[in-house]
Structure formats: structure tokens, C-alpha cells
Amino acid sequence: MEKDQLFTRRRMLLGSAAVLGAAGAGGVLMSGGGDRAARTTAGLAGPQARQALKPSEFRLQPLIGSGSPRTAPGKLKVRHQPILRLSGKGRNMMLTFDDGPHPDYTPHILDTLAKYDVRAMFFVCGEMAVDNKELLARMAEEGHVVGNHTWSHPLLTELARRDIRDEIESTSDVIEDAYGDRPQWFRAPYGAWNRATFQLGAEMGMEPMAWTVDTTDWMTPGTSTVVERVEHGAAPGVVILSHDAGGDRTQSVRAIREYLPYLLDHGYHLTVPPRRMT
């Protein structure tokens, strides 16, 4: 309970100002600055993802790319701002969930995604993942992409470089063990980034991803408010931030059951980033 309250207090202080903003056109994934967009490969190849749900041509639009995945990512450019949104043609959007996996909430979110044949992205915390590895395995089997959200959800800007590395690296180890691949994407807790975070993430082969629209479900504002924020914020390229742990996420579970069919009915393609990059 104390940890959940700490999450809420810090989020209310930091808000979403650290990462919100519009990005220019071009590329596939756009950062808030002038950094070159991340290059992509084939959608969701990988040792466990071969058994993933069959993509719906209408609902799932893998990002650009073709060919077989490499066994390890190439050296990444160190960014100065995180990626904020998708880019390119079409009505692509992405759903992301932070802080899990949680045995009481994540399965229900996965069930809803499976019902509509949609994939999403989960930024997991190592201390949650280590006790719920079966949920990471399910994410791999159903074609979802798993990113790194540190081990214990600390404010990284207050940590020494070695401690930041430990938080990220230990989480990547758990993800690889349970999911089948090391993560290619990283999200800083509270959206709080600094130079060391960008550098270490790149060294470990991960691109920094933020979000465009915060549902504020971490404040438990009510299911209708979460739904409204998603539906009103829906637009080509938008990355939605929600949570499947870190507190009572009943509202998040209920909300996705309402807004997901709405997005699909309005012609949005819910996509995920590639598992590997060239």
C-alpha cells in the first residue's frame, strides 16, 4: 500500500509533462526531438512468438519491415528525448500498459486483447515479472511486445549510474528468461529521463519509448474518465499509456472493454513495434 501511494504521489508531481508533445512527420517511431526514427524489421518473429495469434488484416498493422530477425540488435544511437508517438501513413495507434504484470488485472486485459485479436505493449517491472513469469510467457505466445520498466519503479534521476544499470539489466534478465527475448524497448518510470538513462538504455540495445496520451488511470479517476481520455485522444500515431499494476487497476480492466471496440469500429489499427531492429 505504501508503495502504491508513493507511485501516486510521484506521478502527481511529475505528471506527464516530461514526455508529452507532438512530433513531426516521417519515420516509423518519432521522438520529441530531431533524432532519427528507429529502423524496423519484421513484425513479431521470435522463439515464442511463432505461436502468436493470427493477425487480423483490419486490426493489426505491423510496422514497416521484412526479413528475418537478427539474434541481437545493432548498436543504437543515444537519443536526447524519448519516442513519443508512431508515425507514417494510416490510422495506426498503440496501447501500452505499465507496472505489471499483475495476477489480478493483467490476465483480464490479455483476455480482452485476445477477444478482439489485438496486440499491445507491456512495460514490465522486474519485481512483478519475476513472480508472474507465466504471464510474460503468455504475452510472447499471443504476440504482445514486452518492454523494460526497471526492477522496482524508482525515480531514475535520483539514482547513481550503476544503480540505474542494475535496475534495467536485472529486469531484462527476467524478461529474457520468461518471454524468450531480451527487450528492445525501455520506458523510464514516471517519464523521468536523464542523460545516463538514455545512454545505458542504448548500450543495452533498447530504444526509449514514452507516450502521447496519458489515461490517468493511475489516479483511478473512474472508468468513464479513462474511456473518455482514450476516445478523445485517439488519432493517427498516438501511443496510449495505461497501467495493469501499481495499484487497483479495476478501472483499467473495465475501460479497455469499452474503448477497444470503439477504436476498432472507428478504423484504428492497433499495432506494436518490431521485436527486432536492424
CATH superfamily of the domain at 92-270: Glycoside hydrolase/deacetylase
CATH architecture of the domain at 92-270: Alpha-Beta Barrel
Overall outline: globular
Structural class: alpha/beta
* Strand and helix order: HEEEHEHHEHEHEEHEHE
Weakly predicted, low-confidence segments: 16-28, 33-72
Mean pLDDT comes to 81
Q: Could you name the CATH topology of the domain at 92-270?
A: TIM Barrel
* β-strand number: 10
Please describe the biggest sheet, giving its number of strands, its sense, and whether it closes into a barrel. 6 strands, parallel
Radius of gyration: 17 Å
Kindly state the percentage of residues in helix. 25-40%
Please work out how many helical segments DSSP would assign: 8
Proportion of residues in β-strands: 5-15%
Please give the alpha-carbon distance between the first and last residues. 42 Å
Q: What is the CATH class name of the domain at 92-270?
A: Alpha Beta
Domain NodB homology: 91-271
Organism: Streptomyces griseoluteus
GO biological process, one term: carbohydrate metabolic process
Keywords: Hydrolase, Metal-binding
How would you describe this structure to a colleague?
- By secondary structure, this protein is an alpha/beta fold.
- The protein has a domain at 92-270: Glycoside hydrolase/deacetylase (TIM Barrel, Alpha-Beta Barrel).
- Helix content is 33%, strand content 13%.
- Strands 3, 4, 5, 8, 9 and 10 form a six-stranded parallel beta sheet that branches. Strands 1-2 form a two-stranded antiparallel sheet. A two-stranded parallel sheet has the order 6-7.
- It is globular, with a radius of gyration of 17 Å.
- This is Polysaccharide deacetylase family protein.
- GO terms for molecular function: hydrolase activity, acting on carbon-nitrogen (but not peptide) bonds; metal ion binding.
